[in-house]
Design goal:
By secondary structure, the protein is of the alpha+beta class. It has five domains: about 5-165, 3-Layer(aba) Sandwich (Glutaredoxin), CATH 3.40.30.10; about 200-320, Glycosyltransferase, CATH 1.50.10.20; about 330-415, no CATH class; about 420-500; about 610-685, Glutaredoxin (3-Layer(aba) Sandwich). It contains 26 helices and 21 strands. Strands 1-3-2-4-5 form a five-stranded mixed beta sheet, with helices on both faces. The protein has a four-stranded mixed beta sheet with strand order 19-18-20-21. Helix 24 links the parallel strand 18 (about 610-615) and strand 19 (about 635-640). The chain starts with 13 loop residues before the first helix and ends with a helix. The mean pLDDT is about 90.
Length: about 675
């Protein structure tokens, strides 16, 4: 029998379209949907997820595709589906509810609401039937119907209390709380949770959290703390060796379900690739270990291959599942290896820990299922030594075998691609490509960053200069949020740092000014997640927690510091101080929950480094720029002064046409006597 579509059939989101033929009468988030709930006096079943989410698929197959459950839901609720990647503002509010009510969160996110959007119940994945301590959808529906009918007033009072709790506003702190002790406390908190066997900062599941590692490298640079450096480098090495890294097609999966980085949750997200690439670039700059550079370039190779749209922007994600099974696309059995690697079986199996019974333990069945996750057993130099092979020859053979498997894998059914284009995640990827272009002196990376920005400027920017959040199938929509502005501004700043073209920094300043008008809290400081024009949200909140991605406020603080110093405008300086004061108490309480923010506070406290290169020998200037860009100096900007450009007054003074090259090094508002050659300048930089 042909399936009947529900109200999601006209949506653009791949995630919503996945649910368009469920027997559940799903509605999109809209005022009309809540009016319907009011008209029929029904509670609202709000389900939030995203297309690459494995447990979202499981809950759909178990419950939302089940006619019995669908009838119960349709009789009891008005049902709303939300794609968290399209509407992070909605997700942010109700994820906070879930965390307050249950102590944890995640996706799928399930929240029950009154018709005026007030929550009274929240959780994540629920099975169809209750089992053990986990309540099932059936029982949730029956209990809700009973409470709605018999205890309606008490339920409304409870919803009011929950809303009041999540809308609690903490008093602002003071700038005196922001000091070296806070920065050091952040380090000690991370050190206290560090896994010195496998790296990372938890047992399981284990998330990469690149901004933790970026902070630790910066902490080492500022405070000469070898432990901080060791923690970051060790974690980056272990992540790359594990199964969370795709050794065949490159790029990182979302997170590891175990302590050893072995068994990943197989989805691949654009934002993870961007942030991890930047962490590996920092590690390369600091150590000059070519392995970190290779990893960063492989990540970008994956993004180019699988997530780059024909128009030049970047798609959102690849699914965890293919053919209805999580990870099927990425797993291998020993027979496949033997069939394709005659004569090379031992080399490949010893390098990547391939086992007869498999190395992927099926927890559901309590046994190994014959499948192998490709991961490094040891460091590659150690493996080549154990095999008695020359290292360079070993690497050459290994790359040949990996390429062969990659070609075989391409014949499999691929995971679904979430082909929507998001402004915020593209901003992160733009920043990553522009940074890679600078460090690796690769113009192609800069071209990719620039093309992605031009796409956003053409397709996700309104006539008044304001941004939109989502593009798909030729259609743009959804008002931009703070992450869209802050991440794209970051990307524009990184492009400017790489090409010194004023149009990009001018655009960043233009977007920052729009953000101040539409998102900034002039009374208390900091930026709201949604703009003043958002009318369909129950509350407006500020976010500073640095989770899977850094918060919009964390990135905006970094943007403000750069633009404040570049323009020397007083209005930006006052916004910086007021915004820091807004979050001072929260940050000081648990700084390790805000590592991107704290990393920016290092610059706020310690200052930044600016290098101005001028002169009349373009080749020497470019050579100096390339050499300096290889050095690890956080908060460094190198300006190549072009006599044709119009700069802020302080930079105009550095224009020079009578010398081949002059290099000025400025630290925390104090500049040195100019150097006339790159060698002496580098000696001064690294002393």
């Amino acid at each position: 029998m042909e399936k009947k579509s529900n109200k999601l059939i006209n949506e653009l989101s791949p995630y919503l379209l996945q649910h368009a033929y469920n027997p559940v009468d799903w509605h999109p988030w809209s005022e009309a949907t809540f009016d319907l709930a009011k008209e029929h006096n029904k509670p609202v079943f709000l389900s939030i997820g995203y297309s690459a989410c494995h447990w979202c698929h499981v809950m759909e197959h178990e419950s939302f595709d089940d006619p019995e459950i669908a009838k119960m839901m349709n009789d009891t609720f008005v049902n709303i589906k939300v794609d968290r990647e399209e509407r992070p503002d909605i997700d942010h509010i109700y994820m906070t509810v879930c965390q307050v009510m249950t102590g944890s969160g995640g996706w799928p996110l399930t929240v029950l609401l009154t018709p005026d959007k007030k929550p009274f119940f929240a959780g994540t994945y629920f099975p169809k039937e209750s089992s053990g301590n986990r309540v099932g959808i059936k029982d949730i529906i029956n209990r809700t119907r009973d409470i709605w009918d018999k205890h309606y007033n008490e339920l409304l009072a409870s919803a009011d209390e929950i809303l009041e709790q999540i809308n609690f506003v903490r008093e602002s702190g003071n700038l005196g709380e922001i000091n070296d002790n806070l920065i050091k406390k952040c380090f000690y908190e991370l050190a206290g949770t560090f896994d010195d066997v496998w790296g990372g900062f938890s047992k399981k599941p284990k998330f990469p959290i690149p901004h933790n590692l970026i902070f630790l490298l910066n902490f080492y640079h500022q405070f000469h703390n070898e432990e901080a450096k060791s923690m970051a480098i060790f974690t980056l090495q272990k992540m790359k060796m594990g199964g969370m890294y795709d050794h065949i097609g490159f790029g990182f999966h979302r997170y590891s379900t175990d302590q050893e980085w072995l068994v990943p949750h197989f989805e691949k997200m654009l934002y993870d690739q961007a942030l991890l690439m930047m962490a590996y670039v920092d590690a390369y700059q600091l150590t000059q270990d070519e392995g970190f550079a290779i990893t960063a370039k492989e990540i970008l190779q994956y993004v180019n291959s699988e997530l780059l749209s024909p128009e030049g922007a970047f798609y959102s994600a690849e699914d965890a599942d293919s053919e209805g099974e999580e990870g099927k696309y990425y797993l291998w059995n020993i027979d496949e290896i033997r069939k394709n690697f005659i004569g090379d079986v031992e080399l490949f199996c010893q390098t990547f820990n391939i086992k007869e019974k498999g190395n992927y333990f099926d927890e559901f069945r309590g046994q190994f299922n014959g499948n192998n996750i490709i991961h490094q057993k040891d460091d590659l130099k150690e493996t080549s030594k154990n095999l008695g092979l020359d290292y360079d020859e070993f690497l050459s053979n290994l790359n040949r075998l990996k390429n062969k498997l990659f070609e075989i894998r391409k014949q499999r059914v691929k995971p679904n691609l979430d082909d929507k284009i998001l402004t915020d995640w593209n901003g992160l990827m733009i920043a990553a490509y522009a940074k890679a272009a600078r460090v690796f002196a690769d113009e192609q990376y800069l071209e990719l960053a620039t093309n992605a920005y031009l796409f956003i400027n053409t397709n996700l920017t309104k006539k008044d200069g304001k941004l939109l959040h989502r593009y798909r199938n030729g259609s743009s929509g959804i008002e931009a949020m703070i992450d869209d502005y802050s991440f794209l501004i970051w990307g524009l700043i990184e492009i400017f740092k790489s090409n010194n073209q004023m149009e990009f920094i001018n655009k960043a300043i233009e977007l920052l000014d729009i953000c101040i008008d539409d998102f900034y809290d002039a009374d208390r400081g900091a930026f709201y997640f949604a703009s003043t024009h958002s009318s369909d949200l129950i509350i407006r909140k500020k976010e500073v927690y640095d989770g899977a991605v850094p918060s919009g406020n964390s990135v905006m603080l970094s943007n403000l510091l750069f633009i404040s110093k570049f323009t020397n405008e007083e209005k930006y300086k006052s916004i910086i101080d007021k915004s820091i004061s807004n979050f001072a108490i929260s940050i000081a309480a648990v700084p390790s929950a805000y590592t991107f923010y704290v990393n920016t506070l290092i610059e706020y406290l310690k200052g930044s480094t600016e290098i101005v290169i001028s002169g009349n020998d373009e080749k020497e200037i470019d050579k100096a720029f390339v050499e300096i860009s290889k050095i690890y100096i956080p908060s460094l900007t190198v300006f190549r002064v072009d006599p044709q450009n119009k700069y802020p007054e302080w930079l105009e003074n550095y224009k020079e046409s009578n010398s081949k090259i002059k290099i000025y090094i400025c630290r925390n508002y104090t500049c040195s006597v100019p150097f006339n050659n790159i060698e002496d300048a580098i000696v001064d930089l690294i002393k």
